[in-house]
Amino acid sequence: MILRLLLLFCLLSPSLVKAIEVLDLYESTLYIDDKTRASRVDASKAALTNVIKKLTGKSEVNSHPLIRQAMRSISDYMLKYEYLETRDGELQIKVKFEAQKVEELVQDANLPLWGNRRPKIAIWLAIEDGFRRDFVTQESYPQLERLIYDTAQDWGVPVVVPLMDLEDRSKVGIAEVWGNFSEPVEIASMRYQAERVITARMFKPEASDFWQLEWRYTDAELFESNQLVGDKQQVLIQMVNNFSDALVKQFAIDPNKTYASASSVLTVDKLSDFVTIEQARRQLISISTVVEVDVIERTNDAVKFLVEHTSDVTDLVKAIKLEQSFTPFVDPRAFYQLEDSHNLKYSWVGE
User: Fold this and answer.
1) Which of the pair, 8 or 62, is modelled with greater confidence?
2) Of 186, 200, 263, 290, which residue is the least packed, with the fewest Cβ within 10 Å?
């Protein structure tokens, strides 16, 4: 038990695991038939729908009056576009939008908004095809591996499918993933700096025409897996959709929750001078729901900030958790690190 706790502490240590900045939230690449203006406009509208899904987790938004209006003036939101040609000779168009304008559209439409700091998910997937079990990798099952990345990209969720090279295979075998032996998988996942780790197994039960996919987080409190049944590609897409949708609900700021302006006190240590104090203050005020930040107390290298925000404390904590500049304060004297939303303590790690 102690080994397990120490392992999880190391895996989730701020120096090893951080949410990463997703750089392609405001762009989308689609296949297109030709370079005519009509095709470009239609593709640009579809691209905006894709971008809104990445920001909100919602794809059925085109019926919203403000979204329909934006589609009619699509060029007002576009930053640039370019045509690409695939290796197979097919034509694609990449459309990039202005971040501020799209965010304003999402907020005006009263949709949830998820920022660009997002947790990376490592997916260890074993497949039983006939009498043979193997890992899904770029070499063994390139189409399935590509499907995982493409589906996650639709959500703007950073994922990694382990390489399963000599380094990975020296730590993890099929048996560990198939049986969800969490510790060796979590140790091997440290290489990829993933915040969450999933083990999954895919197989076709005897006398069945459908594939079954069972998956779970390695740190889940309950051992029961999530089970999906269907076509091989279908169940894989559904798994990514399921955990991506859960992440949106966990981290996106819901505008339908209305709060009076609230104040919270944050204690941040490792602020050694006025320059770092000002950097920390500016980083806090850059959070979308934060209105004002003031220094109210300074002792040694710790500073107390009074933060005024228009969300509840839970949403504020979620937003700070995705900022790389702050890490939860670790008390070296405490065996268990407890998060207290009413006594917020962080350490500054820099911009």
Assistant:
1) 62
2) 263
